Hints:
This protein is of the alpha/beta class. The chain has eight helices and 19 strands.
Amino acid sequence: MSSGRFGRxxxxxxxxxxxxADAVRLRYSHKDWSAPVAAELLCGDxxxxxxxHHGNLTGCxxxxxxxxxxxxQVKVSIGGQSAMLEFSTLPEPRTxxxxxxxxxxxxxxxxxxxxxxGRLHGESIALLRELLAEAAxxxxxxxxxxxxTDSGTEAEFACLESILKKISVPVLxxxxxxxxxxxxxARFLRLFxxxxxxxxxxxxxxxxxxxxxxxxxxxxNRAVFDRIDPGxxxxxxxxxxxxxxxxxxxxxxxxxxxxxxxxxxxxxASCRGIGCIGHKNVATQVxxxxxxxxxxxxxxxxPAGYLVIDVHRDEFRLRFEPIPxxxxxxxxxxxxxxxxxxxxxACALKxxxxxxxxxxxxxxxxxxxxxx
Length: 372
């Protein structure tokens, strides 16, 4: 039998993590780990492929060599129940790729091994070391939207520095609120040189602003905004959201001083580009004119991973890269349910709230008329 809630319960979870022009990846978990799990890929009435796993509490299915810009369905069956998921592969790019950015947010690197509330901070060192190295093999640069460390301590920043020394591509970052405590502000400046940045890469502006304390209107940020040209594409990085998002109900969901920063916000809204935001790490988007604000995934909290953004002449192409361990991801999902996190009235589970838009908002294209 098939259930409307099957695949979106505490004991069973099925969701698409990644969609590209020629592949799809989905994850599953089920309390009856001994039951066989089957995934059947369909295109209309035709079967495209089938995979089956045995004896796994959690895992993933990957279907490759798919046709671009094509509608598919995938039926996942466990025991006598099934769930049908739908997705469309992305179209092939029409223009050349200018460069690739790997975007990491909120890894919360910690030297403490304790785990709490489903957060994988105890695994943060291994995850950050492995996935930064993975990203550096194909990305032209790596950018973080804050909370690189969990407590801003000397030990955490020393560990972070040792990891970054082995990365062969440029790494840019803005601070998060967790980076600034316990004297972390000075340590962040020592490692990255400044709390805000601006550079231009192949005609695209990369701007990072310091909102680690929740405030935008500070001299370093105003200097960045003075350099932003609304006539050129923009990638903006901030820990706090610049524009409020109704999907996120938390009191600190947006900068604390929007009234004092009207000119900067208006300039952002006049740009063609994307804003990459940390802090809340729930897949969601806000579109203001031709500017799209995207909340980033967290490396150490379900659904755990990072974003790869390919910058083309006419679009940004987003791809979610989940952490390689679905066991860790499932621990984080279950732990989230017991944590005191905000959710949304439309969602029965906190994991459903966090994962509702992973498929659609962390995979796809953002077209803003680049270079037109």
